[in-house]
């Protein structure tokens, strides 16, 4: 196979990018109203629609877009601890 | 069938007979008549190709890259400053491993506006990953275009290829050329089966960001492909010989077997060189000639003669002839001459004179500074 810069869509082509994260989104299910704004806005499709929104921490880079968009402030960005 | 026509018309005919899907080119002296002839072929329906009119050579190469990326056989042609304007896209085509075939009609670079033959335009594209062929006759220009497709498209190679020949000396001089039947060309050059392509059914990104640990593999693979091209060029050249009666390879040697001195050169100077060798042989001089059919890949291992006289129609300022510097240091006695820059005529008499000067141990920029 010729080696050129060709990539086909695949999960985690760059590895587990969640390791880049500095702040971790934590969803407070008590406050969550299941509006799914976080699921819509996540730029990395790292939030899935289960009973409540669920973050895939293998790929979530901690950008905080979900927390910013959450209308009821149910997502807290907590600093990752070493 | 023997056709008497100019290098440009004959190479346009070769491109037509290779049946490209897409032709994108921008006219520039002395290449213009190739583009004109191809536009005519497309207009008359003689070739079923899309002719993309572009606003520059950079765009011409970009259009070929786009078309080749989806699996099309492509053709373009340029010269001199047009080739230089393509420079960024030449690297792209090489790293994208797209077997685009291009004719470059060699012409000097300005300022000092000059439209005559000089190989500095294509020589300065040495490291772009393009295979480079040089023709010493109109016949070779035709044969090289046909072979270039087969070599470039070989799945072990997949590199773009440039077919070069001298502006005016070959581009505008009518010479007889044996043109095979379309059927024979089709047998020799089957339909292009791309080793990779973009396909809407199988989405992919090409040219995406590549971190160092992957990038090094892309460069290395390209390097290996250029080395493999040596074998493929030999094999395709031999197959061409069996089919059409004119054998090719990395080099063409002429009367080299018992030669004390071998003149190494390329392009139209090689044709004059063969005449010079015949004349010198008549005088009892043991001299032969090697015509470099390819400059990239460079046939280092085939240039193992004790004494070589290299004639370059190019100059790497401050260093000297480009081919000379490729060869020297291999253990042989090598004499370097630069001649014919900016289209200055180099005929067989000049080459005989260069031979005499080399025998005296001299070298340099002929005829103005030889010592």
Offer a quick outline of the entry.
Chain A has 82 residues and is of the alpha+beta class. Chain A is built from two helices and five strands, in the order ββαββαβ.
List the secondary-structure elements of chain A in sequence, H or E: EEHEEHE
Number of β-strand runs of chain B = 17
Whole-angstrom Rg of chain B = 20 Å
Mean pLDDT of chain B: 97
Oligomer: heterodimer
Shape of chain A: elongated
**How many distinct domains of chain B?**
2
Q: Order of strands across the widest beta sheet of chain B?
A: 3-2-4-5-7-6-13
Largest sheet of chain A: 2 strands, antiparallel
Distance between the termini of chain B: 48 Å
Largest interface: A-B, 10 and 22 residues
CATH class of the largest domain in chain B: Alpha Beta
CATH architectural label of the largest domain in chain B: 3-Layer(aba) Sandwich
What structural class do the secondary elements of chain A suggest?
A: alpha+beta
Largest sheet of chain B: 7 strands, mixed
Label the CATH architecture of chain A.
2-Layer Sandwich
- The structure class of chain B reads alpha/beta
Low-pLDDT stretches of chain B are none
Given the C-alpha coordinates, what overall shape of chain B results? globular
Q: Give the overall pLDDT of chain A as a whole number.
A: 93
Q: What's the total helix number of chain A?
A: 2
Please describe what this structure looks like.
The complex is a heterodimer of chains A (about 80) and B (about 375). Chain A is α+β, with helices and mostly antiparallel strands and about 80 residues long. Helices cover about 10% and strands about 20% of the residues of chain A. Chain A has a single domain (about 15-80), classed as Alpha-Beta Plaits (2-Layer Sandwich), CATH 3.30.70. The mean pLDDT of chain A is about 95. Chain A has helices spanning about 35-40, 65-70, and strands at about 5, 25, 45-50, 55, 75-80. Chain B is of the alpha/beta class and about 375 residues long. Chain B folds into 2 domains: about 1-245, Thiamin diphosphate (ThDP)-binding fold, Pyr/PP domains (Rossmann fold); about 250-370, Rossmann fold (3-Layer(aba) Sandwich), CATH 3.40.50. Chain B has helices spanning about 5-15, 30-45, 55-70, 80-85, 85-95, 120-125, 140-150, 180-190, 210-245, 270-280, 320-325, 350-360; strands at about 1-5, 20-25, 50-55, 75-80, 100-105, 130-135, 160-165, 175-180, 205, 250-255, 260-265, 285-290, 295, 305-310, 335-340, 365, 370. In chain B, α1 runs parallel beside α7, α3 runs parallel beside α5 and α10 (about 270-280) crosses α12. The N and C termini of chain B lie far apart (about 50 Å). β1 (about 5) of chain A pairs antiparallel with β9 of chain B.
């Amino acid at each position: 196979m010729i080696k050129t810069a060709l990539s086909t869509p695949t999960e985690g082509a760059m590895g587990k990018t969640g390791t880049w994260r500095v702040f971790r989104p934590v969803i407070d299910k008590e406050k969550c109203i299941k509006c799914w704004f976080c699921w819509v806005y996540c730029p990395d499709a790292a939030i899935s629609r289960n009973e409540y929104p669920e973050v895939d921490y293998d790929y979530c880079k901690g950008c905080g877009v979900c927390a910013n968009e959450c209308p009821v402030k149910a997502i807290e960005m907590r600093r990752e601890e070493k | 069938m023997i056709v008497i026509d100019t290098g440009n018309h004959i190479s346009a005919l070769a491109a037509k007979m290779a049946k490209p899907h897409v032709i994108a080119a921008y006219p520039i002296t002395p290449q213009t008549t190739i583009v004109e002839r191809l536009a005519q072929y497309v207009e008359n329906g003689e070739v079923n190709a899309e002719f993309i009119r572009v606003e520059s050579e950079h765009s011409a190469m970009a259009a070929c890259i786009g078309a080749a990326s989806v699996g099309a056989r492509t053709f373009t042609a340029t010269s001199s400053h047009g080739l230089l304007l393509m420079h960024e896209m030449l690297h792209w085509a090489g790293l994208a491993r797209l077997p685009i075939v291009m004719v470059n009609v060699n012409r000097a670079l300005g300022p000092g506006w000059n439209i005559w033959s000089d190989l500095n335009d294509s020589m300065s594209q040495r490291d772009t990953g393009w295979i480079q062929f040089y023709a010493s006759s109109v016949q070779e220009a035709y044969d090289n275009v046909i072979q270039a497709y087969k070599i470039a498209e070989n799945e072990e190679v997949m590199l773009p290829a440039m077919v070069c020949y001298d502006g005016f000396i070959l581009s505008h001089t009518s010479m007889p050329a044996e043109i095979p039947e379309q059927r024979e060309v089709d047998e020799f050059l089957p339909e292009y089966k791309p080793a990779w392509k973009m396909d809407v059914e199988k989405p992919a990104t090409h040219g995406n960001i590549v971190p160092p640990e992957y990038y090094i593999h892309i460069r290395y693979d390209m390097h290996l492909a250029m080395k493999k091209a040596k074998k493929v060029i030999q094999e395709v050249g031999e197959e061409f010989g069996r089919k059409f009666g004119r054998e090719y390879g990395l080099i063409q040697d002429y009367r080299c077997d018992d030669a004390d001195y071998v003149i190494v050169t390329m392009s139209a100077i090689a044709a004059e060189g063969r005449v010079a060798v015949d004349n010198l042989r008549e005088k009892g001089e043991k001299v032969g000639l090697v015509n470099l059919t390819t400059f990239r890949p460079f046939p280092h291992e085939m240039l193992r003669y004790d004494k070589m006289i290299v004639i370059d129609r190019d100059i790497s300022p401050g260093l000297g002839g480009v081919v000379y510097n490729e060869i020297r240091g291999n253990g042989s006695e090598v004499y370097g001459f630069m001649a014919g820059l900016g289209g200055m005529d180099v005929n067989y008499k000049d080459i005989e004179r260069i031979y005499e000067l080399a025998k005296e141990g001299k070298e340099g920029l002929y005829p103005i500074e030889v010592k």
